[in-house]
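pasting input
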Amino acid sequence: MSDGPADIVEYVSGTGIPVRGNDIDTDQIIPARFMKVVTFDGLGEFAFFDQRFDDEDNQKEHPFNEPQFQNANILVVNNNFGCGSSREHAPQALMRWGIDAVVGESFAEIFAGNCLALGIPTVTVSQEDAEALQAFVDENPDAEIDVDVAAETVTYGDKTVDVTVDDAQRKALVEGVWDTTALMKANANAVREKAKSLPYIQDHEVPAVKDD
Amino acid sequence: MSNGTLYDNVWDKHAVTELPTGQTQLFIGLHLIHEVTSPQAFGMLRERGLEVAYPKRTHATVDHIVPTADQSRPYGDSAAEEMMSELEQNVRDSGIVFDDPTTGNQGIVHVIGPEQGITQPGMTIVCGDSHTSTHGAFGALAFGIGTSQIRDVLATGTVAMEKQKVRKIEVTGELSAGVTAKDIILTIIRKLGTDGGVGHVYEYAGSAIESLGMEGRMSICNMSIEGGARAGYVNPDETTYEWLKNTDAFKDNPERFETLKTYWESIRSDEDAEYDDVVTIDGSAIEPVVTWGTTPGQGIGISEPIPEPESLSPEKQETAQRAQKHMRVNPGETMEGYNIDVAFLGSCTNARLPDLRAAAEIIKGREVDPSVRAMVVPGSQRVKAAAEAEGLDEIFREAGFDWRGAGCSMCLGMNEDQLEGDEACASSSNRNFVGRQGSKDGRTILMSPLMVAAAAVTGEVTDVRELEEVVSA
């Protein structure tokens, strides 16, 4: 990752993988015991670990185990996906497994924000469309899906459905300003002034002006 | 659009500018960090050659991975030791205050902020932890963030955010005996759903909220996130100011207290504030609540039957079926009498002094059921010391509870404190997700500290109001 302008993410193309169920929480996506790490490297193999393996590490039935989905990069989910813990380890694990975009009925807020920070769109569709897309992906694991973030559509087979992308998310991805550090750092002087204006901030807590 | 609420007032005072994305760049008055979500952010800073912009507005502790039994270094778990060492290095390099276990100030991040007076009304507070909403109890705007946002806050002292809607949740009436703040919030989540608060900040108000002490308010704001709301708050009042007056921040500085109190008063929601919507809940109708499933929204009053999945709204049915299978419960039954193997009294929701006092009151003169493994994990070293000064540790120990050191412990099982196999746990924590307490077959039943105490002594889920009086010898 560079400090320069972030990449533009106008659309994501690839094949899909369905993970069904409402309220899939981030403890499911990455169990806490795999968070005893100081980097995000290597988290990909632990995505949905407890759903994928039994106590003896034998594979259980789960889309992330199935050979036809191993190259998929568009995850299709249902309602309130990513609820619970704020752990960025969850989208990091999905991204490192290979996911580039998530299509679902709805997303927990912190999860969607964490995805955006990684340049992963989280686009929402109706329950009907989510289920139809999941069924399509099951039938056609090799078929291409286009998630058009700018136009707010998802195209698969001979169908194009309207999706919703949160305004700020769409702007951030399409204009390539989803990596906010450099953007906000440029306003350091205004931030300092804001800090000084707050009655609970003491002068010695505000950093001195530096020549950048 | 809301107008004149505490949320609007605090937001406006902290908004720096509008970003090209349409988001607001929001100044963060207090950044709390811990060992699990911060190391990667410090790594990102190093990669870009950036420094921590506001180290004196940043405060660290260690809570998730600390052992609660043997805390000698190096920790027995090498991964835990590595995380601790990394945090020590990062705070040293950046000049950040670190309440490590040698200071006597260590504890769960959402317990130590309030108890030291670091958490104050009218602040913006973030932490890489979804339960940061806890600090809203003081009238702060407090919310959890991901690691990339931690990087932003470390590097710039700000975060990019969109403004949310404000829902006022008015809990009227008076709570009946045996009913606590935990039962209020479990009721709210049950009624509004685990995703009901998405896109919203919750303002908790009404007589049942206002009559709570700060600890009860914290329990409620803590679980805002379980209802999908990233932040929740209570307007500051005399109860808030009384608490703050006695904290480290103000006990020797009454002048600063008075100056800031003017500010705190100024950010309260206006009398004629406008809300996006208002929900009213009758507090006097709430009874002790327990969960029967695997999301915090799957709660019922102790006397109520577990619902038939078919009776729920369509999107909840499949989740309910899965949950009932995992928990091995049947619709139509109540949760009363459900056998438990473990009783866990702890977590950022319910491990403060009044929680321990209330549980000890139940435990006193009774014994933990022989089939139950019971433990108390105080929220902080200070809570632990205060409890010991009152002799609460003796009450718990005599009854058969394990009395532990401070940390997150079995709420999420990142240290040695975990469920084994398919153990069922009566837990004062906040999440009953499958696998949450360290075993993927484990079963968690969320409830108040009072109800955990009752379950510990009977070995099953029990209505604390129906426990027989202890006959003193």
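fyi Chain B touches chain A through 84 residues (CB under 8 Å).
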